[in-house]
Amino acid sequence: MTIDEIKKKTQQIVANKKSLPGALLPILHDIQHEFGHIPEQALSIIGQSLNQTEAEIFGVISFYAHFRMQQTGRHVIEICRGEACQSMGSKSLEQAAQSQLDIKYNQISKDNNFTLEPVYCLGNCACAPSVKVAETVYGRMDSEKFARLTDKLSTYKINVGEIV
Amino acid sequence: MTTTVFIPRDTTALSMGADDVVQALKFQSKAITDDITIVRNGSRGLFYLEPLVEVMTPKGRVAYGPVQVEDVESLLAQGLLDGNSDHPLYLGFTEEIPFLAKQQRLTFIRAGIIDPTNIDEYIDHSGFSGLTNAFAMLDQDNDNGRQAIVDEIKTSGLRGRGGAAFPAGIKWQTVLDAKAKAPEQQKYIVCNADEGDSGTFSDRLLMEADPFCLIEGMIIAGLAVGASQGYIYLRSEYPQAKNILEQAITIAYQQHYLGKDIQQSGQTFDLEVRIGAGAYICGEETSLLESLEGKRGLVRAKPPLPAIEGLFGQPTIVNNVISLASVPIIMEKGAQYYQDFGVGRSRGTLPFQLAGNIKQGGLVELAFGTSLADLVNDFGAGSYSGKPIKAIQVGGPLGAYLPEHQWPTELDYEAFAKMEAVLGHGGIVVFDDSVDMTAQARFAMEFCVAESCGKCTPCRIGSVRGVEVIDKMTKTHQERSEKSTEQLAELNTLLVDLCDTMTDGSLCAMGGMTPIPVRSILNHFSDDFVATTDKFNVKETN
Ligand SMILES: Cc1cc2nc3c(=O)[nH]c(=O)nc-3n(C[C@H](O)[C@H](O)[C@H](O)COP(=O)(O)O)c2cc1C
Ligand code: SF4
Ligand code: FES
């Protein structure tokens, strides 16, 4: 996408949402949904239209774990680090996932397929440990299931909710 | 005749493969009949049995579970569609499964029974009866009617289910009495659906299994205090709840339960879902309001209370999902009915959530007063791993780790407070004896480092120091020099002091409660704390 296209799209999103009370988070969500991250060029556009400085907008983005300004791999895999998942072995799952993909949290795998991110509870604590990819949560995850999941994700686009 | 089959679409059922079971069943049942209807209900909360497949029979719903794709063929062959009984996954009538039969469901009365986005089914299962009663109170005259609704909530004894257990009726009264300020002249109902605690999922399940119940509760709250705008602040980690809530809200608008002139009552209530962005602190009510206003979620000092100066400076009710979803049944059956459940000052029911290393995890709604031991043993059937249970953390990451001798304590806000523990959101996380208690104490501090809003020093800096001290203790212990015992004792004192500072000096309960899990480990698992089995026992200093 060219910079002009990014700007144009951002302007559209901002125009759609700016009249909402407390519009900033909805705007940031829409932008991240569109581009996978919040491009630097968006800051001044949002700032101007909400009458805030770029620093203020950046301050909000950096406060929230969900928002990011860097690109990700094709799939973002979130691994739950909450206590319920810990009690079911999420720590060894984290290690297995990191060594399997050869990345640490918030990094992109060499094949550009994956980004790993930590998350604190997906509300799936009765079937822990849990991971989430896009909108799908997977329960009772272990290193073997994880390997099968990433295998599927990297070979073809799987249907949401498909069992691994 | 059509056979109706129920397969849930809540996050947990989906996480265990419910969609694939649906596909397999659709495909494979064709050989037997063309005439099956698959209803995607919400889950009953028997998560250890998900995906739970139910079949409607003339005598009632029969359950099978947990069903995987590879079970579908044999299930069909052995008479699944007739509710037959010779399959190993056969569970009998759903309502008779002990895990469910022994519950006292008030708030979750419809969960898993209906299709969450079918408003007719909601109404058939006494949905909107509470709202109808509320309208009847307003019919006489608005002001007395509003007061009557607030009085009903007060009498019910309902206390906030989000953690602080503040009486809902008193909060509502404050908002009712508050004057909305010009130019907006607006009061707000804000639903706290941030549910950040590990081990908790009752808000999620309610929103995914019975969203109209929350919507109805919020409309009633709006009528009670004269607020015409509501927001549900939902965490971004719950995309399925978002989908289902948004569908339900759209339908509620179409059917004139939301918007202008609701059911020709002359009353207006608008409702919108707003998505958080992965900050635990945004579950704290003032931080949540900042976030809703489009800012960083920095905690506001109180007073002013949100009830007086809340969202955009206007009087605002901030209530948890379960608090608001308990309102319809109170308004339907009366305050006395609700108040008859519970013990002491903890009235009504609480949806307890069994999670972690537990064999039968899921949601158990019961009146206050049961013991943790009963929940974990009777309902939970012990640990998942089969190993002995060592510790149970109740109330999320800021809750205490309880040792075995505390498990018989009644689940009641005051009884828990007495032992320096909290019930919080009702989340119960079980750990077997492989748990490393030092690591859990460290994690409590680490979580606070990650999630502190940063506004005050005891929490922002204290938590960082907390991690450091615990690391130093571990290292000292490992080195085992001559002086280790002495040094460990000193570090232990330092950690206890630090906990006191955080408790006393923090602006909100994030920093104020982080010491709770740490202290509980120091007090009850001191043999484990750093020194596992040997002479480096740090007990005497706490
Ligand atoms: C750090 C922190 C996190 C909180 N997280 C939540 C939460 O996730 N959900 C919730 O309902 N209340 C949470 N609370 C409690 C809220 O501040 C507030 O008491 C509650 O929303 C009021 O609603 P209630 O009276 O219906 O419980 C949290 C409080 C603190 C201090
Ligand atoms: S205690 Fe922590 S989270 Fe609460 S206001 Fe202070 S810094 Fe923020
Ligand atoms: S702690 Fe991992 S899903 Fe809740």
Automatic annotation (TrEMBL), chain A:
The lineage of its organism: Bacteria, Pseudomonadati, Pseudomonadota, Gammaproteobacteria, Alteromonadales. SUPFAM superfamilies: Thioredoxin-like. Pfam families: 2Fe-2S_thioredx. Coiled coil: none annotated. PROSITE patterns: COMPLEX1_24K (PS01099). Belongs to the complex I 24 kDa subunit family. Its cofactor is [2Fe-2S] cluster. NCBIfam families: PRK05988.1 (NF004638). Keywords: 2Fe-2S, Iron, Iron-sulfur, Metal-binding. InterPro entries: NADP_DH_HndA-like (IPR028431), NuoE-like (IPR002023), NuoE_N (IPR041921), Thioredoxin-like_sf (IPR036249). Transmembrane segments: none annotated. The keyword Membrane does not apply. This is NADH-quinone oxidoreductase subunit E.
UniProtKB/TrEMBL annotation, chain B:
PANTHER family: NADH-QUINONE OXIDOREDUCTASE SUBUNIT F. Residues 438-483 form the NADH-ubiquinone oxidoreductase 51kDa subunit iron-sulphur binding domain. Its cofactor is FMN. Belongs to the complex I 51 kDa subunit family. Keywords: 4Fe-4S, Iron, Iron-sulfur, Metal-binding. InterPro entries: NADH-UbQ_OxRdtase_51kDa_CS (IPR001949), Nuo51_FMN-bd (IPR011538), Nuo51_FMN-bd_sf (IPR037225), Nuop51_4Fe4S-bd (IPR019575), Nuop51_4Fe4S-bd_sf (IPR037207), Thioredoxin-like_sf (IPR036249). This is NADH-quinone oxidoreductase subunit F. Transmembrane segments: none annotated.
